[in-house]
Amino acid sequence: MLSAAGGNMYQSVDATGKFLCFHLHLINGRRILIYPKGDRGDHLSIYLCVADSATLPLGWRRYAQFGLAVVDQTDRKTSITNVATHVFNANEICLGFTSFLSLAEFHNPRRGYLVNDACLVVAYITSNMTRGLISHNSILSHELLVENDSAIGNRKTTITTPAPSSSQPSCQIVDIEPKEPTKEDMNTFFSSLEFELLSSNTVFPQEEAKEALAKLEAALNMTPINFHDSGEFSPLKLAFKILASVGCSCTNLTIEQKNKLSAMEESLKQLADRAAKAVEDKNRLTAKESIKKTVTYNLECSLIRYNEVESQVKQMEQKLTGLQEQVEEAQKKRKSMLTEQKGIFISSKKMKMELEALSKELAECEAKAKVAEDEEKTVEAEWGRMKHFISSIKEDIKRALEEKYGGEEEVARDEDLVEQIGRDIYFGLVDHKKVRSFRIQKQMPFNVFKEEVAKEFGIPVQYQRFWLWAKRENHTYRPNRPLTYQEEAQSVEQLTEVSNKANNAELKLFLEMELGPQLQPVAPPEKTPQDILLFFKLYDPYKEQLRYIGRMFVKVDGKPMEILARINKMAGFDPDEEIELYELEDGDTICLQKFSEVVSEECRYPDVPSFLEYVHNRQE
Fold it and tell me: Per the database entry, which stretches of residues form a coiled coil (predicted)?
């Protein structure tokens, strides 16, 4: 018999009413099964199961780490523990230990597993993947508690034992917190984690998919032998996995393309290895030919020298006949020469044997080199087909990413104009490729998009006013007009169509934001049909520097003198400073400088036109 604080308990019997096992229902949908007489044999059996498995939703999965212990109540050191990890699902709802402890040992009166017809079972259960399984000592280091407790990431429940039954032994089960994990715990945990990660269908972000495609293209742009020598195969394993996951969710890739992409990882390495082997065989032929040439040369030199010595020997023999007084000296020389001759003979004989061996090896090398040339051509052809295949599905993958993640909407601000004008931009206002872009779904309402902008830039929605950019004939862009309230109520896709009418393939926006006296965002000023938006750039001829200083609304029929004081304030000049104004780019962009600097002879480019002409010539 068994009772528990914090859980429900009942017993199972067979069709004849014979007792089978205890069932203990814990919180969080867990259940402990204990077979005191064994499940399928003569051992005590204990299992961890999912409660109410018939009600689990389709695709339900849950990772669990658990440890079970049958405590020796007289000597904790001889307690029996077992630890396991498992990913439970609708088809695999139970896992445990059929042969946890032999019944003979369980009922052994010399042990303390069964005391006064009662046993103590300790259970540790957690679904926290960041913590390792507790060890034998950690499980047994906790004392039984008499009231409920809880812990983050695992259950901790106290079970009390009633008066023992005469028919069945009773059990206590305690879920406990883990102690400091041991190395064995951490190894067990990460082995299970690796299995789960490998069996999961990870969805990678779009940027990782693009980077993976770029890595694969870069590898295929190498020659097979350069790729083999680069040692870049290991990073491509993750790239293949990322592209495979994109392919599996992509409706534009055919099944044949997905299969080819999956099989390409091993083929890529094999082709690189084959190319390296072919080059190695060719290099071996070159080395053998070089050795043969050297040995042949040495042998020819030896033959010449041998003939020379032979001639000298004959001359000495002739002198011996006519010059008896020089016999002794001549004999010494003759003996020396004969010794040299013998040495030459021995070394030449060795070189001749080496040459004969090289001739045999050379024939084999020539055959391998010929095969290597054919293999090299085959590898290059296969490599080209793989490269062509990737090129052919590149656009499909990009379209799949576009369908899955949506398009990019570019938002430029005054900060972007300050950052770029005078550095990267001289004739326009901004390079849209270098401004903040937002990846959003096409069907998203524009008002929802404004909330995303508010989170990113910290500008409340009511203080935002967006302008559409218009493309000029000189390929520069300018804010054309603000969006109407009706347009802001549309979707991003509808606004993109409006932007297309202004020669913009993508939705490009300028965010107008005004600051109040306390440098806090305020509502933009009301714009009338007579108002136009001008942008101002300040030129410093001494520094040869052009920079953005601000923007303002002016009347269509207004005169420069009416806004002179405002321009000087924007440039940081005195209110009555004389300045020179230059209209650029259809009059919506104004360049200015001090009038006194225009006639300066100390500067290479004293005015705006001469400086812009210099920049134009330099860029060409």
Answer: 261-382
Q: Which residues of 444-471 are buried (b: 16+ CB within 10 A; e: fewer)?
A: bebeebbeebbeebebeeebbbbbbbbb
**pLDDT given at position 196:** 54
Name beta bridge partners: 147. none
Q: In whole angstroms, what is the distance from residue 127 CA to residue 123 CA?
A: 14
pLDDT in tens, 201-247: 565 677 877 887 887 788 788 888 777 777 666 667 777 777 766 65
* Token duo for residue 425: 């931009």
Task: Quote the pLDDT of residue 537.
Answer: 93
Residue 422: DSSP 8-state? T
Q: Alpha-carbon distance 479 to 509, whole Å?
A: 8
Query: Could you give the CA distance from residue 430 to residue 358 in angstroms, rounded to a whole number?
Result: 71
- Give Rg (Cα) of the chain: 44
Query: Are 558 and 613 spatial neighbours (Cβ–Cβ below 8 Å)?
Result: no
Instruction: Please give the structure tokens belonging to residue 43.
Output: 């051992």
- Kindly list the distances between the CA atom of residue 413 and the CA atoms of 410, 524, 535, in Å, as whole numbers in the listed order: 10, 14, 12
Dump pLDDT digits (tens) for 156-211.
Answer: 333 333 333 434 444 444 444 445 666 666 766 665 554 555 445 565 677 877 88
The two structure tokens encoding residue 539: 């030129």
Q: What is the DSSP letter of 484?
A: P
Which two structure tokens, joined as six digits, stand for 402?
């576009």
Q: Hey, what are 528's tokens?
A: 């009338």
Beta bridge partner(s), residue 85: 65
| Average model confidence (pLDDT) across the chain | 79
The answer to whether 365 and 284 have CB atoms below 8 angstroms apart is yes
The amino acid that residue 60 corresponds to is W
CA-CA distances (angstroms) from residue 600 to 240, 458, 603? 63, 45, 6
Show the DSSP H helices in 20-169 as ranges: 103-106, 136-140
Output the six-digit token pair for 569.
């304030």
The Cα 238–Cα 19 span in angstroms is 54
Residue 22 — φ and ψ, nearest 5°?
Answer: -90, 145
Q: Which of these, 176, 118, 123, 179, lies nearest to 150 by C-alpha position?
A: 176
Helices and strands in the chain, H and E counts: 15, 20
